[in-house]
Amino acid sequence: MDLEVVPSHLPIISAQLHTGQAQVAATAAPASVAAEPIPAAIDSISTWASQIVTDYMRSFFRGTSDGLAGHGRLADALPVVSANYETSDQSGAIVVGGTTAFG
Q: InterPro entries this protein is in (predicted)?
C-alpha cells in the first residue's frame, strides 16, 4: 500500500483539526454543566441514581477533555512533520528526518 504525503497539506489539516477541537470544546463545556444531575431526594434510589449519573458524567467529560488534548497535540505536530518531511525530501533522504510525535 502506498502513502502519498503532500507536505503543504499538513499545516492546512492542522488548522482544520484546531478548528474542530475548538468547536467540540465549545459544545462540551456548556454540556458538562447541563449534564450535572439535580440533587437527589432523600430516598435511597434517588441518591443511588444521582451518584451513578454523576460518576458517568465526570468520566465522560474527563475522557472528552483527554481526547481534545490529544487532538491538539496531533494538530500541533503536523506542521513540524511537514517541515521535517520537506527538509528530508529536499536533501534526498529516504526517511523523514524527525521523531515521532505520536507515541
A: PE-PGRS_N
Pull the grid cell for residue 2: 502506498
Residue the block writes with cell 434510589: 45
82 within domain boundaries = yes
- Residue 21, in any domain of the structure: yes
CA distance 15 to 74: 11
pTM for the predicted model, two decimal places: 0.64
What average pLDDT does range 25-53 have in this prediction? 85
97 assigned to some structural domain? no
Q: Which of 84, 70, 85 is nearest to 25 (CA)?
A: 70
Phi and psi for 11 in degrees, rounded to 5?
-65, -30
